[in-house]
Amino acid sequence: MRCFGRQCRGQGKIFVKLVRQTETQLLALGDSIAALAQEAHQALQEAPHLSAAKRERLANALRTAQEAHQQISTQSRQLTQGKKLPHCKIVNAYDPTIAPIMKGKSNCPAQFGRKPGIMSEPTAGFIFACAVPVGNPTDPSYVVPLVDKVQHAIARVGGPTTPAIHSVAGDLGVNDAALRQALHDRGILSVGIPKTVEPINPEPSPADIGHLLNEAGVHRKRTPYQVQLACACGYSRPVVESHIATLLTRGAGQLRYKGPHGAVVQLGMTVMAHNAAALVRIRQQRLSKRAQKFRRLLGLRCRKVN
Amino acid sequence: MRLLRHLQHWLRGSGPRLQVADVVPKTNSIRQWTDTFPWAKLVEAVEQSCASRFPKRAPGGRHPIPTRVLLALELLKHEVGASDEAICERLRTDVAVMYACGLDEVQLDSPQEHFVLPETLAQFRSRLDDALMDELLALQAAAAMDEGLVSPAHLLVDTFPAEQGSQRVTDATTLYKAQKKSSNSSCPSRSTAPPEQPH
């Protein structure tokens, strides 16, 4: 695992002196890059045999490389002089969109990479939307774009009854007042997002349901039955970890394609393959008791496969 | 027939034709997995997106490999956990993979000297963009909702870490190279003059 920072597990050796010496040499070596880049830009503009499109493409590539070097050299000076780096630092010279992931295992070095987000349904684990943002944004910032994507998919359904999103459940990381308000404005319940570490009550009383509806301001949009299901869904939220585990077994834990575009393509294809497998399980009725019960409550049909 | 015409450089032959759907049993996992996709919509979306972003500059040239074959190979790759080379190789020999790629029939005595190259698959992948991936996922979700198999009523959201697995220069690599360079520079005689062999 590529990691950064203090080694808390294992016998890690940190060659601070060596890093400082190498850094000085590399910075001295890179001093001439700015002047060389200027010369290269001029030579590129004067090259008669290159087409305009090719010249523009090469100039862009050169500009990107120049900017990357500037960022890396600044970061390198800060790192070796004992100054604390800002949150999102460059960890890969060729891809500045990769960031340290402040998530996952505790008491071990932070991983480098990306933090994809998914929005799935709680029965068979069908994933409606996924997102691979640049850098390492906060968890609540994932929710509204994912909801938009699901609503985009819903808009494509051509039937007599259009499905709708009733509730969204998440972990304590997505507990944000602004996010709750944004969901309520769209008529979506946020009872599945916990406010404390205590588990959500899966069977709220009628008084509680009324209170939740009033609090969200969706009294006319959502029914008490939908609130009950939302609470049950919030209680069963950890099932999303199994959906993530399935994605990880398909290789989503290690992004092999190049750059942010490659990450989007790889995750998208993995999610689609996962969804197809989930649909096969639904068609064959190979679902857990909990999933079967939830599907019955949601009024989803199961086709009998002969 | 369209698919067959496009892949005829590979499927050419004069012997009996093998009906792929007859060979692959309905209980085959790849066949069941394949039958869940709304292929026509997915292929149309990919072709429309590519046609708008990469317009054909000149008429003529060889027919391209069908989008259905490339899309199916890319998806199947993630289903079976294969590499580009492995999945392209399986297309030559595995009838279930042929079914997944939408090939209806193949010639039994074809020489099979040509097949979809892994490079072609990588090129196809580079043409997919973020908007198109979202569109493909939306189409799949809409088809499943249309069938009444899934409902978006109650949704769960979560994030997970995904490590970038490219073998490129990282801090660890830089440090290793610097260490190696430092050790080489500290004892130059080793690199410049090899030790004499004892007689």
Chart the SSEs and their pairings.
The complex is a heterodimer of chains A (306) and B (199).
Chain A: E1 3-4, H1 16-30, H2 33-46, H3 52-80, E2 99-101, E3 110-114, E4 117-120, E5 127-131, H4 140-154, E6 167-169, H5 177-185, E7 189-192, H6 206-216, H7 224-235, H8 240-249, E8 254-255, H9 259-283, H10 289-298
Parallel strand pairs in A: 6-7
Antiparallel strand pairs in A: 1-3, 2-3, 4-5
Chain B: H1 2-6, H2 8-11, E1 17-19, H3 20-23, H4 29-34, H5 39-53, H6 67-80, H7 84-93, H8 95-100, E2 105-107, H9 118-126, H10 130-146, E3 154-159, E4 162-164, H11 171-186, H12 188-192
Antiparallel strand pairs in B: 1-2
Q: What does this protein structure show overall?
A:
- The complex is a heterodimer of chains A (306) and B (199).
- Chain A has 306 residues and is mainly alpha-helical.
- Chain A has two domains: 3-97; 117-298, no CATH class.
- Chain A is 49% helix and 9% strand.
- Chain A has helices spanning 16-30, 33-46, 52-80, 140-154, 177-185, 206-216, 224-235, 240-249, 259-283, 289-298; strands spanning 3-4, 99-101, 110-114, 117-120, 127-131, 167-169, 189-192, 254-255.
- Chain A has a three-stranded antiparallel β-sheet, with no helix packed on it. In chain A, strands 4-5 form a two-stranded antiparallel sheet.
- In chain A, helix 1 (16-30) packs antiparallel against helix 3 (52-80) and helix 2 packs antiparallel against helix 3.
- Residues 5-10 of chain A have low confidence and may be disordered.
- By secondary structure, chain B is mainly α.
- Chain B has one domain (2-146).
- Chain B is 56% helix and 8% strand.
- Chain B has a two-stranded antiparallel sheet with strand order 1-2.
- In chain B, helix 5 packs antiparallel against helix 10 (130-146), helix 6 (67-80) packs across helix 9 and helix 7 crosses helix 9.
- Chain B is extended, with a radius of gyration of 24 Å.
- The N and C termini of chain B lie far apart (75 Å).
- The interface between A and B is large, with 109 and 60 residues.
- Strand 3 of chain A pairs antiparallel with strand 4 (162-164) of chain B.
